[in-house]
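Hi, here's the filled form for the chain we discussed.

Project: internal
Contact: R.S.
Residues: 140
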Amino acid sequence: MSIDQERLAEMVDRGGSNGAVSQTPPPQLSQASGPKLPGRREVWLELPAPYDGHKFKMWVNFPGSVGEDLNGASDDLMYAAIGQVVVEHNGWRDDLGTLPPPSEPAFWRRIPQELAVTIISLVRLETQKLPNSVTRSRQR
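And the returned structure, exactly as it came back:
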């Protein structure tokens, strides 16, 4: 046992640094105590006309912190979040050539505003599919 481990063991034996003895045992964490959440899930979405053939891949089960930023009041936070959620596109081009990946701010500056709003709307709709399917099945 190292010196640091010995000091820690002494503190625990004395009940911490003030000598008080704790009556509550530390919680025992089990790695197999419940179901594991699914890993990162990504899906490809197709855009409606006039963007026929344009597809993008999005991260569907992103954490709530990213969702808060996506719905936040700040445009900077919202574009940073959408850049994390929209993972890639299928080689979109404009007059300047192939667009950068959606994770780069230049992507969002180069695409038309109607396209950006459409992408954001589709992302929000896609993240509601699972909760809406649960609601529909309970109403039956």
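Let me know if anything looks off before we file it.
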